[in-house]
Write a structure and sequence with these properties.
- The chain has 201 residues and is an alpha+beta fold.
- It has a single domain, classed as 3-Layer(aba) Sandwich (Aminopeptidase), CATH 3.40.630.
- It contains 7 helices and 7 strands, in the order βαααββααβαβαββ.
- The chain has a 7-stranded mixed β-sheet, with helices on both faces.
- β6 and β7 form a beta hairpin.
- The longest helix is centred in the first third of the chain and has 21 residues.
- The N and C termini lie close together (7 Å).
Length: 201
């Protein structure tokens, strides 16, 4: 695994981070389920992505690698994941349509119940430039987040959107909590990292 220099994401870098996510998640099963049309996929990131990154930055939990080929976005305990709920709902209802009914149930009821009432970090996304994937760059960002969780003795929760992603997180000490099967859509994997669990180095 490479020795990466990791720094906080800054405001002037937000648009670049959004474009990185567009490329990194283009074939992600959940993204393609939500936005099968390419134009809607890009629109969702360019309109909502900047708000999500700035929200994470305001709470001190967004980093990038020195060469800007990867970025991680997390939310600390007790911080809402939706910085502009009205904007998010309006755009998602336009782009996602009837699929929003189950998504509201999944993310509004099932996942919160699964995670319980204890404080936790939410790992929202790790995006790595497709040209340099599978070189340990994303793992370096993940370890950074795990070290912070260890220091604060707070677990990390995430939703993996593919078997390969779930395996990666499992190698880093994340435990599988539950399969989340979306009707006519992908299977998601709820996972959790507990402080004190060994992680990859």
């Amino acid at each position: 695994m490479p020795d990466m220099y990791i720094v906080p994401l800054t405001q002037p870098e937000v648009d670049e981070a959004v474009e990185l996510c567009i490329e990194a998640f283009r074939t992600d099963p959940m993204e393609r389920y939500l936005f099968p049309e390419e134009d809607n996929y890009i629109r969702s990131w360019r309109e909502l992505g900047p708000h999500k990154f700035r929200h994470a930055m305001e709470n001190g939990s967004c980093w990038r690698t020195e060469k800007r080929e990867a970025v991680i976005r997390c939310l600390p305990p007790n911080v809402t994941p939706d910085p502009n709920r009205a904007l998010w709902r309006e755009l998602m209802e336009k782009l996602v349509g009837s699929r929003m009914v189950y998504l509201n149930h999944l993310f509004g009821e099932i996942i919160p119940e699964l995670r319980g009432n204890q404080p936790y970090y939410e790992l929202s996304s790790i995006a790595v430039n497709p040209a340099v994937q599978n070189r340990g760059i994303g793992s370096s960002l993940l370890i950074k987040m795990q070290e912070i969780a260890q220091q604060n003795n707070v677990p990390i929760h995430l939703i993996a959107s593919s078997v390969s992603n779930a395996r990666l997180y499992n190698r880093h000490g994340f435990l599988h909590l539950q399969d989340l099967v979306i009707p006519n859509g992908p299977t998601l994997y709820a996972m959790c990292y507990q402080p004190g669990t060994p992680h990859a180095v």
